Amino acid sequence: MTRFRAALVGLGFGAEFIPIYQRHPDAEMYAICQRSKQKLDQIGDAFGIERRFQSYEELLKDPDVDFVHINTPIPDHAAMTIAALEAGKHVACTVPMATSVEDCRRIVELCDKTGLKYMMMETVVYSREFLYIKELLEKGELGRLQFLQASHQQDMDGWPGYWPGLPPMHYATHCVGPVLGLPRKDAEYVSCFGSGTIRADMIAIHGSPWAVETAHLKLRNSDLSARIIRSLFDTARQYRESIDVYGSKKAFEWPLIEDEPAVLHTAKKPEPEIPELVRVPDFAHLLPEGIRQFTQKGVYDIAENEHLSFTQGGGHGGSHPHLAHEFLRALAEDRDPWPNARQSANWTCVGILAHESAMAGGERRDLPEWSFSD
Ligand SMILES: NC(=O)c1ccc[n+]([C@@H]2O[C@H](COP(=O)([O-])OP(=O)(O)OC[C@H]3O[C@@H](n4cnc5c(N)ncnc54)[C@H](O)[C@@H]3O)[C@@H](O)[C@H]2O)c1
Predict the structure, then answer these.
(1) In the CATH hierarchy, which fold is given to the domain comprising 4-123+289-339?
(2) Nearest to 29 by CA among 12, 13, 9
(3) Mutate which of 35, 127, 130, 230 to test ligand 1's pocket (most atoms within 8 Å of Cβ)?
(4) If you measure from the C-alpha of residue 224 to the centroid of ligand 1, how many angstroms do you get, rounded to a whole number?
(5) Among the residues of 67-172, which ranges form H helices?
(6) 219-250, pLDDT tens digit by residue?
(7) Rounded-to-integer distance, Cα 204 and Cα 214, Å
(8) Ligand 1 centre distance from Cα of residue 18 (Å)
(9) Any idea what the Cα angle at residue 295 is, between residues 344 and 75, rounded to 5°?
(10) CB of 255 within 8 A of CB of 238?
(11) What is the three-state SS of 225-288?
């Protein structure tokens, strides 16, 4: 059986994947890469990883690396992905795929040309909530899908580097992914409105004035449309990545407050009996035994190293082991992962074009044809 040699690039949030690859039967956790030597060595020592790179270019020259998993800052994703594909490596990359439509197109073309695999590691579509709704849909319990909406609201004031002033829709895949991913449809076109105003010093950075951006997406080859909502600054809201799904028989609504139960509505019941509070089950049974524990919060501190504080894993809906598993199985089975390059491009371009639409007063923006899968 082949074990695919992983090189993890960017060890902030990215380091959470190290113990998962170390325990996955299809992977060898081979190399790590990040800029500062001190943190590189701290993490390398804690997890017993010998191959360490401060230079991404050097890492790509190593013939033993089968795939890179990129978790570097947003502006680097596209260039690093393109360089890896040109060096003959498969790519898993955190969100978003790129910051321009043109870079998304280049990545799709490179995958077509080389046959290499690309997967955007969108956490929401492997969260336990998404997997629960998907199961309801597949069992026919939702009935006919009628509407989807998703929100991602987070106050990112004080976050470093590339975050200040970022147009909300430039980081929209946590909303776009689930509304397109559940019905497995492409977005055909988008119209977006901006609302409110952020502080002047923030506006100056990207020329993006809006506190909130809301978009409607028309789904291609479908009677469905979806709504997405994003805010990043100067808007009072607890961190929330939500999905609401309305079917003819049942509907799922995300809780208003973190860690409260979700609501499942059932049609054709007496009005007070329509809503029911539900605790979403875990989907660890879909994973190889060795990585099931990583669907839970708090299991990441296994290195018992005080410098490593892994808090996001279970917080992303237990998605990390599912993401790693999907990518590795795609390599092992020589099939496209989900989402593949084209789907990832369609999801990412929705956000880029939605912001363009908002800046043009809500004008419709069509998704590029090369981003369509069906
Ligand atoms: N739910 C999610 O999907 C989710 C959650 C958190 C972060 N992210 C994404 O992960 C990425 C990283 O976020 P973070 O919070 O860990 O950031 P961070 O700033 O904490 O970490 C960035 C890492 O990248 C490394 N790096 C930067 N430039 C590099 C280069 N040229 N070569 C090698 N290494 C380099 C840094 O050394 C550091 O280890 C971002 O793109 C963010 O959008 C996604």
Answers:
(1) Rossmann fold (3.40.50)
(2) 9
(3) 35
(4) 34
(5) 77-86, 101-114, 128-138
(6) 999 999 999 999 999 999 999 999 999 999 99
(7) 21
(8) 14
(9) 35
(10) no
(11) EEEEEEECCCCCCCCEEEEEEEECCEEEECCCCCCCCEEEEECCCCHHHCEEEECCCCCHHHCC
Query: Residue 96 Cα, ligand 1 centroid: separation in angstroms?
Result: 12
Residues in the chain: 374
Express each pLDDT in 169-186 by its tens digit.
999 999 999 999 999 999
> Rounded to two decimals, what is the model's pTM?
0.96
CATH of span 125-282+348-371: 3.30.360.10
Structure tokens belonging to residue 368: 């590029």
**Ligand 1 atom nearest to CA at 11:** 39
- Do residues 336 and 373 make contact, with C-beta atoms less than 8 angstroms apart? no
For ligand 1, atom 20, the nearest C-alpha belongs to 12
CA distances from 159 to 12, 79, 131, 237 (A): 14, 23, 30, 16
What residue ranges do the domains of the chain occupy?
4-123+289-339, 125-282+348-371
